[in-house]
Amino acid sequence: MVKEKVEEVVEKAEEGRNFLLDGLHKILLAGVGAVSLAQEEVEDFVGKLVEKGEIAEKDGRKLLDDIDKKRKEQTGKVKKQTEKAEKELDKRLDGLLARLNVPTKSDIDGLNDKIAALTKKIDELKK
Question: How far is Cα 36 from Cα 126, in angstroms, rounded to an integer?
């Protein structure tokens, strides 16, 4: 009975963590979509400037390359921040479970292994 309750609490905590990570993932995908759309708009705008002769094609390519480079740098920063946020979320969730005195999955697995070993020894002693 206690085992099932503990497993239920751990499962609900994992569901909450997954819910938060899914939300974060959706936000990041929306950001990627917005950046992609902005990139297309910039490319169109620079293409029009080149067509009108307001800037040279070489300068237009350089401008697009610079923008692409900056976008990639920002994407790298966002990825690092996301990884940091996930680690922080895991850390806080582990802290919360520890404060609630809820065993982790590895704790439960360890106890299950010990129970299995003890059951095996009892069965051997019965023989």
Answer: 69
**29 vs 110: CA distance, rounded Å:** 38
**Tokens in use for 21?**
């990570």
Q: How many structural domains is the chain composed of?
A: 1
- Decide if 85 contacts 23 (C-beta within 8 A): no
CA–CA separation, 74 and 72 (whole Å): 5
SS3 (DSSP) at 54: coil
Read off the pLDDT of residues 63-103 as tens digits, 9 standing for 90 and up.
Answer: 888 888 888 888 788 888 888 888 888 888 888 878 888 78
Question: Can you give the residue range of the structural domain that contains 25?
Answer: 2-126
